[in-house]
TrEMBL record:
InterPro entries: MAPEG-like_dom_sf, Membr-assoc_MAPEG. GO terms for cellular component: membrane. This is Membrane-associated proteins in eicosanoid and glutathione metabolism. It is found in: Membrane. PANTHER family: BLR7753 PROTEIN (PTHR35371:SF1), INNER MEMBRANE PROTEIN (PTHR35371). The keyword Transmembrane applies. Transmembrane segments: none annotated. The keyword Cytoplasm does not apply. It comes from the Eukaryota. Keywords: Membrane, Transmembrane, Transmembrane helix.
Length: 154
């Protein structure tokens, strides 16, 4: 009996991953806008402008910086994920397998963003790294399984 996971849904994970990379950006801008005028002419200086403000609580400065870092990390991992999904579909991996891996990857990005933005203890950083490894591992597993499938046909 076919399930929704047997449908080729993994391609939808690409725009979802892109959106997940931008959620920290929204949090950064929203938080920063409470303390300074957001400079859209030179947006990459906003974090340093918040950091330089004496009247802003250090915890909020740190949260803005972490949200920016989570956003950058999402953008850095996005190409690898996108390529992995495209390659897996092209290679002909089973849709259920790709979809399950996509759920792992997307779930790891949600958890990663949450931990990164809200972390306050050293063990949170270790947890974040573990979650990052799960996401990267998901992408790499798609690439490796795809390569194995293609090479087995030759």
């Amino acid at each position: 009996m076919a399930s929704i996971l047997d449908a080729p849904l993994s391609l939808y994970s690409i725009p979802v991953a892109w959106l997940l990379a931008y959620i920290p950006q929204v949090i950064k801008v929203t938080t920063a806008s409470k303390f300074t005028t957001y400079d859209n002419l030179d947006p990459r200086t906003n974090v340093s402008k918040i950091s330089a403000k004496d009247k802003v609580d250090d915890r909020l400065k740190a949260k803005v910086a972490r949200a920016d870092a989570a956003h950058q990390n999402g953008l850095e991992s996005f190409p690898v994920w996108s390529i992995a999904v495209l390659v897996a579909n092209y290679a002909g991996l089973a849709s259920r397998s790709i979809n399950n891996t996509a759920l792992v990857y997307l779930g790891s990005r949600v958890v990663y963003n949450y931990i990164y933005i809200n972390q306050s203890k050293q063990w949170h950083g270790s947890s974040r790294t573990l979650v990052w490894n799960v996401g990267v591992g998901a992408a790499l597993s798609l690439l490796i399984r795809s390569a194995n499938l293609v090479s087995s046909r030759t």
